């Protein structure tokens, strides 16, 4: 189990600022699993105060995005409104993006295709080493001079992955045609059987890895249990406060639970949150 109290975390420069050659993005790293396994993930709050551009691209890992404030543009005439929760499948292209001021919860994780999510430390080390024979430019591309003297340009994450692995990156075949955008306010709250004052909205289950997205709500004075299921889960507090003994989680806090692991809380202030059920892998 891992816990992060978002109220006590400071904003910091975006970790891969060097890879993007810009300084418009800041972040709060909530939780990270960085063990070199298929189930590694990076769970952060990302804030853009000015403008941000990214070309059309894809990743060999999926993403979940929860827009907390503002609007997240992800392709021409395609936006994620405040409150939306979206699943960006592995191998699905999106962009170009022209993003204005906004704040979002971003989860990047090893997906059902089994290619994993690259080690955070390894990505940083590789991107630093790569600048010895090339440069990252605004928008996230990597440029270097090829053997024939011509400029070669490649997506920054793709170039970094190939530098790490020592082989070409072959993206997984997409299982969806585009990112899936859900609008939680259009779903109805359903009572949780056997748990008075607890409610949920089932937003969806995606791919054969059964990545599940669910909004939860618990009334002040009730009891709320997170985890205790046969799957790994991440939990994000969108609003409210819960406590158990000396542990208190308020707005923008997070929790990670392994299989069959959980914790029961008292609800101090009406809770609203997002539960993300992660895929399981044989090695785990």
Describe this structure in words.
This protein is mainly beta. It has helices at 17-20, 120-130, 156-165; strands at 2-4, 12-13, 25-33, 41-48, 52-54, 63-70, 72-75, 78-80, 85-88, 97-99, 102-109, 135-137, 141-145, 151-155, 180-182, 190-191, 198-206, 211-218, 223-227, 233-244, 247-249, 254-257, 262-277. The strands form 5 sheets. Strands 1, 16, 17, 18, 19, 20, 21, 22 and 23 form a 9-stranded antiparallel sheet that branches. The protein has a 7-stranded antiparallel sheet with strand order 2-3-4-11-6-9-15, with no helix packed on it. Strands 12-13-14 form a 3-stranded antiparallel sheet. Strand 13 and strand 14 (151-155) form a beta hairpin.
Write the layout of secondary structure elements.
Layout: E1 2-4, E2 12-13, H1 17-20, E3 25-33, E4 41-48, E5 52-54, E6 63-70, E7 72-75, E8 78-80, E9 85-88, E10 97-99, E11 102-109, H2 120-130, E12 135-137, E13 141-145, E14 151-155, H3 156-165, E15 180-182, E16 190-191, E17 198-206, E18 211-218, E19 223-227, E20 233-244, E21 247-249, E22 254-257, E23 262-277
Antiparallel strand pairs: 1-22, 2-3, 3-4, 4-11, 5-10, 6-9, 6-11, 7-8, 9-15, 12-13, 13-14, 16-17, 17-18, 18-23, 19-23, 20-21, 20-22, 20-23
Helix pairs in contact: 2-3
Strand content: over 45%
- Using the coordinates shown, work out and report the CATH topology of one domain: Jelly Rolls
> Based on DSSP secondary structure assignment, what is the total number of beta strands?
23
From the structure provided, what is the oligomeric state, counting identical versus distinct chains? single chain
Number of helices: 3
Sum up the overall morphology in one term.
elongated
CATH class of one domain: Mainly Beta
The main pleated sheet reads as:
9 strands, antiparallel
């Amino acid at each position: 189990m891992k816990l992060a109290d978002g109220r006590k975390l400071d904003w910091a420069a975006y970790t891969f600022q060097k890879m993007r050659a810009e300084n418009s993005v800041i972040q709060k790293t909530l939780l990270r699993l960085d063990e070199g396994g298929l189930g590694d993930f990076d769970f952060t709050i990302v804030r853009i105060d000015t403008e941000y551009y990214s070309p059309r691209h894809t990743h060999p890992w999926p993403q979940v995005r929860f827009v907390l404030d503002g609007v997240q543009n992800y392709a021409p005439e395609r936006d994620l409104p405040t409150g939306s929760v979206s699943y960006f499948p592995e191998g699905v292209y999106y962009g170009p993006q022209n993003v204005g001021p906004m704040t979002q919860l971003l989860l990047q994780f090893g997906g059902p295709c089994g290619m994993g999510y690259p080690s955070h430390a390894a990505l940083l080390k590789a991107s630093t080493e790569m600048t010895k024979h090339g440069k990252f430019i605004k928008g996230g591309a990597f440029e270097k001079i090829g053997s024939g003297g011509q400029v070669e340009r490649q997506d920054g994450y793709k170039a970094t992955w190939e530098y790490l692995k020592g082989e070409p990156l072959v993206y997984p075949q997409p299982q969806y045609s585009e990112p899936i955008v859900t609008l939680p306010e259009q779903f109805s709250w359903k009572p949780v059987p056997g748990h008075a004052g607890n409610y949920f909205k089932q937003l969806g289950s995606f791919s054969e890895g059964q990545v599940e997205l669910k909004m939860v709500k618990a009334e002040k004075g009730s009891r709320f249990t997170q985890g205790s299921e046969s799957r790994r889960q991440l939990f994000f507090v969108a609003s409210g406060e819960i406590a158990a003994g000396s542990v208190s989680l308020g707005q923008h806090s997070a929790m990670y639970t392994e299989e069959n692991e959980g914790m029961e809380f008292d609800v101090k202030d009406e809770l609203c949150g997002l539960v993300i059920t992660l895929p399981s892998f044989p090695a785990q």
